Amino acid sequence: MARNSIYMGPRLKRVRRDLGLTQADMAKDLDISPSYVALMERNQRPLTAELLLRLASTYRIDIAALADDESEDMAARLQVVLKDPIFADIDLPALDIADVATSYPGVAEALLRLHTAYSEEQLAGASQRENMAQGEAGSTNEPVAEARNFLAARRNCFPALDDHAGQVGDEAQGLDAMVARLKERHGLTVQFVDPDMMLGALRWHDAHRDRLFVSHLLDHASRKFQIAQQLGLFEARRLVDEALAEGRFTNENARTLSRRALVNYWAGAMLMPYRAFSRAARRTRHDIEALSREFSSSYEQVTHRLVTLQKPGEEGVPFFFIRIDRAGNVSKRLDAAGFPFARHGGRCPLWNIHHCFSTPGSIVTQRVELPDGQRFVSIARTVSAGGGSHAAPRAMRAVALACAEDHAAQLAYFDDLQRHEPTPIGVACHICHRPRCIARSAPPIGREIRPDTYRDAGTPFAFAGD
After folding, report:
1. Which residues contact 197 (CB under 8 A, 6 or more apart)?
2. What percent of the chain shows pLDDT beyond 70?
3. Number of H helices, E strands in the chain
4. Alpha-carbon gap, residue 276 to 269, rounded angstroms
5. CA 74, CA 102: separation in Å to the nearest integer?
6. C-alpha angle with apex 22: 21 to 25, nearest 5 degrees?
7. Rounded CA gap, 116 and 79, in Å?
8. Mean residue pLDDT across the chain
9. 2 Cβ partners below 8 Å, 6+ apart?
10. Helices in 187-323 by DSSP H: which ranges?
11. 224-265: per-residue pLDDT in tens?
12. DSSP 8-class letter at 96
């Protein structure tokens, strides 16, 4: 038997306390000495197979439940957290981390919660500094910013939701099975109707008549997603509440937006189960269109799901995702790796996300380089919302999925792209210090503008010292 299955100190102590027993009581019941119980609880003695059977028989405990070891997952989560630069100067061997997770699960959980709170504070501080730098009104308790910080502090990954949604997805595969589950488990009849019957809505739960109305103008992937959302509202409520309880919200609007994001997360995880989707992503080398067909999901749903593959111990490529309209307004932003231009939006006009509006529906790829030398690969394409009939309103937006060039070899798009030189772009003009950029819309903070009385430098701004 493996070491993690034999040394069960914290779990043995938890069982004893749950039963209201002292070490002497348990020792008497198991016919061993109190000192041996103490040694086992400190992981200084193993719990033998004979003792495990005696324990299960004496206290009528399911052996499988007792042997279920959560320490590996805890250790994986700790290893991710301890990669934070704040711990860079501390020697933290993997074996020590595993020992903490196994022997002191309470301490490990406390550290994880503390780091999550620290991450939220860091993100809130970054938002505040950005607002001050741009001279914009607003604060970190703005609902959208708070919701984004809540997701980003957790790397937009919620393993408990993934696991639960995957189980439901295994039990209800395909639209017909999902509709049947709503009927059998929740007494809800699904009807696909004209959106005019719902005042233009895509989905409406009529609780009085036990009906779920879904727009018949939606394509197959969107219908599935709407049904999955409704299942999530019913079946993942407790898990969503538990996740939200860890957040630090200053207003109810931020909590509401975060709840909606978690339900959407659950729906995506049901349609694209973590392990199956992660394996397919590696097999196809993250070919978004191929994944879209394999999982009968939209292009945007697949890109969104790729960002969430950060389950500790089973991490995928760390992507970030952004969605903008033609005017450059950001309507969605998800970051799994703390990339610098994920926080500031897609404001550089040299970035390919702005170019794909001229070729709707086509994927546009690009290597980009930031002023500090960091290089990324960006995959952008337009996506449409609405439509379904001649008179139905439509909206076109662009989405970009990007990752550090260190991971680019894992992408099908990089085979041709690596022959091209990276495009120099900036995070945002006010913090980009490339003086010769002809696309600049504002001078960088701290640079003195030179009055070019005698010559035209051919750039929007000329700076003293250049």
Report:
1. 213
2. 84
3. 20, 9
4. 10
5. 8
6. 80
7. 14
8. 83
9. none
10. 220-235, 237-245, 252-271, 274-283, 288-294, 299-307
11. 999 999 999 999 999 999 999 988 888 899 999 999 999 999
12. H
Residue with tokens 């704040």: 86
416-456 confidence digits (pLDDT tens): 888 889 998 877 776 677 777 888 877 776 666 766 666 66
pLDDT, position 434: 74
CA 163 – CA 155 distance, rounded (Å): 17
Burial class (CB in 10 A: 0-12, 13-18, 19+), 135: exposed
Decide: helix, strand or coil at residue 423: strand
Alpha helices in 318-458 (DSSP H): 340-343, 414-417
Dist CA 307 CA 310 (whole Å) = 8
User: Which phi and psi (to 5°) does residue 45 adopt?
Assistant: -140, 145
CB 130 within 8 A of CB 139: no
In angstroms, what is the C-alpha Rg of the chain?
A: 27
The β-bridge partners of 449 are 463
Q: Is residue 149 within 8 Å of 257, Cβ to Cβ?
A: no
The span from the first CA to the last CA of the chain, in angstroms, equals: 69
Closest CA to 331 of 353, 363, 298: 353
Asked whether 259 and 244 are in contact (CB, 8 A), the reply is yes
- Indicate the DSSP class of residue 444: P
Two tokens, residue 160: 């408990």
Which of 27, 41, 18, 49 has its CA nearest to residue 103? 41
